[in-house]
Description:
The protein is mainly α and 178 residues long. 76% of the residues lie in helices and 0% in strands. The longest helix is centred in the middle third of the chain and has 27 residues, at 56-82.
Amino acid sequence: MAEFQAQAHACLAGLxxxxxxxxxRFVAAExxxxxxxxxxxxxxxxAVRDDVLNGRALETAHTLVAAEIFDDLFDQxxxxxxxxxxxxxxxxxxxxxxxxxxxxxxxxxxxxRATDDLSxxxxxxxxxxxxxxxxxxxxxxxxxxxxxxxHGHVDQFTPEDVTAMLAGVRSFLPTLxx
Length: 178
């Protein structure tokens, strides 16, 4: 029973996240008697299987994977900035933000084409009321820093601008992807 519970819980946490409703209910079911535990936990696993087969759980898994990828990109950008490569950090941070906005668009009922740049995506999000005008202006500043970095206009922004960009984008993404 312990082996089954450990494997099932690890599978749920890996697929849907350790704090998912399914994982939490699975753990909570361990408080009942052994027969009740098994019955309840098998029911939870059947519900997860149903959600996976119908594509509902895959959205959650996709979001977790995307968040992990974007987090890795920000770690790389932060490392580049600390190593003195603020231009590369700005470019990578902007690319990660653009990819995250494109990825999150369907969750906000927006269409995003592969050719949409960061400014275009920002306009779509702003027009749809996904975030405030202040946030929209902030994203436009980040897009400007990224654009200047990408085009080699290194005298148009400072390392401090990149530091602020990294901090702002990192705090913004959980809201966007959430």
